[in-house]
Amino acid sequence: MRTGLARAIAGSAIVLLCGATVAMAGPIAFAGLIVPHLARWAAGPDMRWTLAFSAVFGPLLLVPPIWPDACRCSAAICRRA
Fold this sequence. Notes:
This protein has helices spanning about 5-25, 25-45, 45-80. By secondary structure, the chain is mostly helical. The protein is built from three helices and no strands.
C-alpha cells in the first residue's frame, strides 16, 4: 500500500471532519479540539503539564480574535458617556 496516498486521504478526512465540527458548533469547539493537542505537543507526555499548557493555550487562541471588537465597543461606550 502506498503510505503517501493513505496519509493524504487520512489528512483530508481529518480536515473535513474538523471543518464540519467547527461549522456546526463554532470556534469554541475548534479550541476544544485543537488546544489539548497543541498542549501535548508542547508539554510532552506528562499530563500535569499538558493540563497546565491547555489552560494557557485556550485563552491565547480565543481572545486575540475578539480583541478588536471589544476595543471598538468599549470606545463607543466611552464616547456615549
